[in-house]
User: Which sequence fits this backbone?
């Protein structure tokens, strides 16, 4: 079931991307020979007006075949015969659709769930379940006064106190106000193996405020930009080699992540679709050969008067494609090793 859900999630994100290329190509009357959902052998096809629509056996994404992108293609209104502006729009349309999908999801989630307003006071609103058998002695409505004799004035002080602990494996002394009485208790921190973070497993009190459309549009924009920023910083760290191999996920790792999200409810799964959609959008924007960003880079060079021979450009994209396949092999192999750990 985990694999099926993961294929559906990845399929939605990839098909939305390809739909952007397809719709923009159609808008500019560029011939499109096929729009496919899935890969591999054909299961069902429909011959439309100059375009074949197909469902294929392997439910992994899909593709769009835009005519006139190959060298020597002498097709009326073909891709390479269009002006740079049109080619730019067709190439960036896939990324735009990924970002649009993420934004629509964020808008829907913010509008339906409302704005969560956290109480900055160090009062526990919920105690999260632990992954191990350890029972957390903290309780709802506990007010945290001290952590290892360090005074706690507001909720953010709790996170700071955990960060400053020298030995995070030892139990932490906490002074709480419970039922108008001060009580000393010891709490073991829980470790997140993915990022090596330690935490108490508690969240603050909060209220939910329903917002109108305009306010939700603003919150969605802020949420999108913050998510975009964090993912972009992740890509930047990856390029600089600052990311641990265990934190890199390929197809198998994504299946596990989606599977875990699906167990936490539809909300977590939909949120993950938005995250993956932004990830794929940013990845495709990278100025790397064979990616949309790489092809856009050549269009920008052309506009600047630096025209590169089409045959040389295609050879560069072919090398880029080989490098991408090698990257896929690497991250997939890395997933297998991570499964064993």
Assistant:
């Amino acid at each position: 079931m985990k694999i099926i859900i993961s294929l559906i999630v990845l399929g939605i994100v990839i098909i939305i991307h390809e739909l952007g290329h397809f719709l923009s190509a159609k808008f500019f009357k560029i011939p499109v020979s096929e729009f496919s959902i899935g890969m591999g052998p054909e299961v069902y096809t429909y011959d439309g007006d100059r375009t074949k629509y197909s469902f294929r056996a392997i439910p992994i994404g899909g593709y769009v075949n835009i005519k006139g992108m190959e060298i020597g293609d002498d097709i009326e209104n073909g891709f390479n015969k269009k002006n740079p502006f049109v080619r730019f729009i067709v190439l960036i349309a896939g990324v735009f659709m990924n970002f649009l999908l993420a934004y629509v999801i964020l808008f829907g989630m913010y509008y339906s769930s409302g704005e969560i307003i956290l109480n900055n006071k160090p009062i526990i609103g919920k105690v999260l379940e632990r992954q191990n058998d350890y029972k957390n002695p903290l309780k709802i409505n506990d007010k945290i006064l001290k952590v290892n004799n360090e005074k706690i004035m507001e909720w953010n002080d709790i996170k700071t106190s955990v960060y400053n602990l020298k030995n995070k494996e030892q139990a932490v002394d906490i002074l709480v106000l419970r039922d108008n009485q001060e009580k000393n208790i010891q709490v073991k921190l829980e470790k997140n193996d993915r990022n090596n973070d330690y935490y108490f497993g508690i969240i603050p009190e909060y209220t939910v405020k329903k917002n109108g459309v305009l306010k939700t549009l603003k919150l969605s924009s802020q949420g999108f930009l913050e998510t975009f920023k964090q993912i972009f910083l992740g890509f930047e760290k990856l390029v600089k080699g600052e990311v641990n191999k265990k934190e890199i996920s390929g197809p198998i790792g994504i299946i596990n992540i989606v599977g875990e999200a699906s167990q936490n409810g539809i909300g977590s799964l939909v949120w993950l679709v938005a995250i993956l959609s932004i990830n794929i959008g940013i990845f495709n924007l990278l100025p790397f050969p064979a990616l949309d960003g790489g092809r856009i880079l050549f269009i920008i060079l052309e506009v600047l008067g630096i025209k590169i021979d089409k045959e040389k450009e295609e050879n560069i994209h072919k090398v880029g494609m080989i490098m991408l396949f090698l990257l896929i092999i690497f991250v997939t192999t890395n997933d297998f090793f991570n499964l064993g750990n």
